[in-house]
Amino acid sequence: MGPKLDAVTAEMQHQAVLGIVLPSSLLEKSITIIDGTVQPSPVQNGLVTSFVSRMDDVKSLDAKRKSQLQSEAVSAVKDQVYPAYARMRDALIALRPAAAKQSAGVNRLPDGTAFYNLMLRQQTTSNYTAEQLHALGLSEVARITREMQAILDAQGYEARHRSPRVSSSCRRIRSITCLTPPRDARSF
To answer: What confidence category does residue 160 fall into, taking pLDDT thresholds of 50, 70 and 90?
Structure first.
């Protein structure tokens, strides 16, 4: 597994030369995952413990062979996997400055906007560009908000501070004015 991790690290470094770097949030999450993976001793690593538990299901393996295979697995994790993870972690840390300069969207990638528009055409029934879809979304939110406000106005609700009745909705929909019922409706 060590050589496979090194191949992933080499590809990540190659992609970085081309301007393709993980966004900071994913880069930091990757480092955290690596740290958690290499934190236990090799004998307690999930790769080894899983291997050992699966060996218990193989009735034809005697105790001596199981012990030998477990020792080999521990050595492989200690001598190959953990060092490969350390190299990957170092490579990720080296990419922090480049990752900090980017957004998380595909528009950060070379030809990212064209790729995004292609995905929109392939994954939707629309020929709209991202900008057109965004503008449509904004206009629909405005239209629906006006319709909601008209209904609430007709019912006598007034735009004010949050009430317990709608506070949970307001937490989920931060951009909509929170409403309280009119004074004469509060007794219901």
So the answer is: low
